[in-house]
Amino acid sequence: MQMLPPLAVVLRPALLFNTAPAPLVPLPAHKEMAPLRPSVADPLPNINAPLFPPALDPLLKTRSPEHPSTPTFEEPNVTIPLLEAVPSPLSITRAPPVISTHLPALAVKIAPLPLVPLPAISVTAPPLPEDAAPDPISSAPLLPAFEEPALNTRLPLLPAKPAFVLVSVKAPLLLAVPSPELIMRKPPLSTVLRPAQIDAILPAPLVPLPTPTMS
What we know:
By secondary structure, the protein is low in regular secondary structure.
């Protein structure tokens, strides 16, 4: 026995549409306002060319360094390093020690005989195939129908109208900018003199040094 689902006894409410209320104050009208024009007309363009130098080529200025009033080093000073006379040690030659004990006698051991006789060596060739080897087949490649292929040359199609009717060539703008004047300056010389050289002598030892002995 087939049973149908129960039907809803409660009815759905009616569909309501709510409209927006009328504005209490009228909306302002849409106005478009252009920006204010300047009180003065546009100024005239003013183009000033750069000033050219009075001479075509700048004058070359060369300055040599000033010579010092006194030389940097009046007298040359040469110092020789100290050399200490240290005697070299005596040369000692020693032979390696000799072994006093005799070496043991050389012992040679022979492998024992096998208890069971070894198997004989047998050489077994692989079995031959039942059928004989097939004959070799050589097939040459197929040659073309013609000895030399025909030359096929195609030229590009000419356009209906030329790409450019008139040829226009524009040269780039060249600005005449004057070069700055060349100034050559050498670095200044150092006027500070170096300090005088001082030779320091080692002080005498407080304890007499030991005398070297040869052993």
